[in-house]
Amino acid sequence: MADDAENLWTADPRRLLRPGPEFNLASVDRAGTPGWSGDKDDAKELMLRRGELLSELQERLFAHGRTGGDRSVLLVIQGLDTAGKGGIVRHVLGMVDPQGVALRSFGVPTEEEREHHYLWRIRNALPRPGQIGVFDRSHYEDVLVVRVQGLVEREVWEPRFEEINRFEEEVVESGTTIVKVALMVSAEEQGMRLMERLDRPDKHWKYNPSDVDTRQRWYDYQAAYADVLARTSTDVAPWYVVPADKKWYSRLVVTELLTQALIDLDLTWPQADFDVETERARLAATMQPQVLAAAEQAGEQARAKHVDGEESYREALAEAGSLDDLPGDDGDD
Ligand code: ADP
């Protein structure tokens, strides 16, 4: 296993996985690991290290939200059944403090939701300042399943692409960084994963007979996804098309995308809005001398550790930032 797993990225996944004008969904190798020259163990190793950085960055975001900041991050996860949406939530978001994560899954609209515009339930679920919002499925279902199943006429879903772009622009303007990932599993792998759900009684709860109905419309869904990617990958809210046959790869990529989104916010710890020395004296006056002495000793150690911590954080940031220097395209999208 490599000591320095960051170096195993040969290209920046942010640029590599963004669909450009020539993008062709059919040519995406869903078992591929674009930009990653390491193996599964290397990826797991890097994810663990990234997890520490991600966790610190998330705490900074949370603190920022608690002190009047307006920034937040929204991770939109789309993908067909078995693409690994739940695994991303468990393994990537599972690395940060759940208090700072606002997870929402979007299923078939409820009766109440159906009485409103399709973006109503989405607006209500947007992350508050300081939060990482996660959408497991999203408003994109309204141009995917709704279209493929013919739940509304073309005249109704067609204008939604533009409407979604305007909506996301507004969300970004209000301080939210949007990271959209389309997990792309191959038909073969999806078949295997569904079969495994049938083979294992402990997975039956995950199986829904309608999954096979959806699978029977595979090409319609691919066409609908292709349109989504072509029409709603904007500069302010780009899509990342993530090959998902290797779960460890898609999890690593999403960890990287989220980490980079948080790095780009460039948040510092909020300044105290009180005088620290005055408070220290007031608190000390309430403490027994021997407890105070012990606290002072612990305080010295904590301050020293913080300086170390800040240094390793800066180092990790510098390493992470080095992805910027990588080429954006290896010509293999
Ligand atoms: P999952 O399959 O993601 O584990 P569910 O079992 O709750 O979660 O399934 C969600 C289902 O809801 C999916 O089949 C999805 O296509 C459907 N769905 C989501 N949004 C809409 C929508 N706006 N209109 C119709 N169906 C939707």
Automatic annotation (TrEMBL):
Residues 302-317 have a biased composition (Basic and acidic residues). Keywords: Transferase. One of its GO terms (biological process) is polyphosphate metabolic process. Residues 295-333 are annotated as: Disordered. GO terms for molecular function: phosphotransferase activity, phosphate group as acceptor. It comes from the Bacteria. The keyword Transferase applies. Residues 41-262 form the Polyphosphate kinase-2-related domain. This is PPK2 family polyphosphate:nucleotide phosphotransferase. It comes from Georgenia muralis.
